[in-house]
Amino acid sequence: MIRPAMTVWRERSLQLIALTNEVEETKREEVIEQIEKILDDRDKLQSQIAQPFTAAEKEAGQELMTIEKEVQSNLARFMKAIRANITQSQSKKEHITSYTNPYGNMMQDGAYYDTKK
Questions:
Q1: Distance between CA atoms of 54 and 60, rounded to whole angstroms?
Q2: What is the mean pLDDT of the chain?
Q3: What is the rounded CA–CA span in Å between residue 88 and residue 86?
Q4: What does pTM read for this prediction?
Q5: For residue 115, what is the DSSP state?
Q6: Cα dist. 35→51, 83, 93 in Å?
Q7: pLDDT digit string, tens, across residues 15-69
Q8: In the chain, count of helices (H) and strands (E)?
Q9: pLDDT exceeds cutoff 80 at 114
Q10: Does residue 28 fall inside a structural domain?
Q11: Number of domains in the chain
């Protein structure tokens, strides 16, 4: 018999995989909120999954480990996409400001020191 916490963990992991696979930029905020909620649920379940394990639980645990690797890679890919979009929007912002004010970032030093006497 497998503990209910393990089956719920598996369901939440599969939900995470599904959420991170289909992300549109317009729905990103909603997806991030759902991911945070699912991760919180999984965090609460983690304390309920402890040894000793039965043979069926060990087998289910092996399946959970492979699912967990996929969850981790999908979350990393999702975060990388978010970071890329943030970097892209920052570079667009800098480009727009440099286009509207091309001399704004110039050095205004202008000091000249004559080393010869």
A1: 10
A2: 85
A3: 5
A4: 0.74
A5: -
A6: 27, 17, 29
A7: 999 998 877 878 888 989 999 999 999 999 888 888 888 888 888 889 999 999 9
A8: 3, 0
A9: no
A10: yes
A11: 1
58 in a domain, yes or no?
Answer: yes
Angle in degrees, 0-180, between the axes of helices 28-46 and 55-100, rounded to the nearest 10? 150
Question: Cα dist. 42→1, 58, 70, 102, 106 in Å?
Answer: 20, 18, 15, 51, 52
What's the Cα-to-Cα distance from 84 to each of 55, 73, 78, 79, rounded to whole Å? 44, 16, 10, 9
CA dihedral sign, ordered 21, 62, 34, 83: negative
User: Three-state SS for 78?
Assistant: helix
Domain span at 10: 4-93
Evaluate whether residue 117 is within a structural domain: no
Contact assessment for residue 14 and residue 67, using Cβ atoms and an 8 Å cutoff:
yes
CB 41 within 8 A of CB 16: no
Q: What is the structure's pLDDT at 50?
A: 81
Judge whether 30 lies within some domain.
yes
Instruction: Determine contact, residues 82/37, Cβ cutoff 8 Å.
Output: no
